[in-house]
Amino acid sequence: QVQLVESGGGLVQPGGSLRLSCAASGRIFSINVWGWYRQAPGKERESVARISIGGSTNYADSVKGRFTISRDNAKNTVYLQMNSLRPEDTAVYYCNVRRPDISTYNYWGQGTQVTVSS
In sequence order, what DSSP letters do the residues of 21-40 get, joined into one string? Predict the structure, then answer.
């Protein structure tokens, strides 16, 4: 019912920047919570950033001050601006949308690779 299409990943040097986009189509609600997650090789998927009702945001300690999550409700698109990238940020990044009040409303994008290397 909901499709998430991600873009913007790629190879960047340490200290560089990337902006990830997640375009959604289907049944989208105003009370959705949007989030970005990442998974590095051999590690569990972790939450990076989320934006919820009223536009409040939360970030993992490892990315605070460097990453910014934002949304454009008119376009049903969520962004992740990543600055001052480090090699430790290398991972597959996933977009997620969910409703906290409905457990079955939970969708994921296909993932996009971000590689930070010289």
Answer: EEEEEES--TT-EEEEEEE-
Q: The tokens of 101 are what?
A: 């009040």
Residue 8 — φ and ψ, nearest 5°?
A: 105, -10
Q: How far apart are CA 105 and CA 44, in angstroms?
A: 22
State the pLDDT at residue 29.
Answer: 76
pLDDT at position 110: 96
pLDDT, tens digit, 9 for 90 and up, residues 14-38:
999 999 999 999 888 777 899 999 9
Interatomic CA distance for residues 65 and 8, integer angstroms: 20
The identity of residue 51, as a single letter, is I
